[in-house]
Specification:
63% of the residues lie in helices and 4% in strands. The chain contains seven helices and two strands. It has a two-stranded antiparallel sheet. The protein is globular. The termini are far apart. About 6% of the residues have low confidence.
């Protein structure tokens, strides 16, 4: 995939799968900030299933790398959330991304997420 991206960094499938690798920490360090960027590139290149992934991140927010693992003490949300989140949770933006994936990409997972939000 990195080879595909070195040839064409706008390749939607390669960007999508790089996002998956970073989201899951498969062969690379787990990093949702980097994953978010790959999904954005993929969606901008026209891959609709990337919008579903963006919707998931919008729904829950993208925590900065240093806040990925909970140390057992729980999150102190009294702190500035802009420091904890690279992208704060935004339900309306999540709905927008899910709608885009559902309407144009016919993505079943996006339809399911919309149903759960509207429920």
């Amino acid at each position: 995939m990195r080879l595909a991206l070195s040839i064409d960094d706008g390749c939607p499938e390669a960007n999508y799968w790089m996002g998956v690798l970073y989201e899951e920490g498969l062969g690379v360090e787990l990093n949702h900030e980097i994953s978010w960027k790959y999904y954005e590139r993929s969606a901008q290149a026209g891959l609709m299933k990337a919008y579903t992934k963006l919707g998931h991140f919008c729904y829950s927010g993208v925590r900065r790398q240093e806040f990925m693992k909970d140390d057992g003490s729980g999150w102190d949300l009294g702190r500035n959330e802009d420091y904890i989140f690279a992208k704060r949770p935004d339900k309306m933006e999540a709905v927008y991304d899910y709608l885009k994936a559902a309407n144009f990409g016919k993505d079943a997972e996006a339809c399911n997420c919309l149903g759960l939000i509207y429920e």
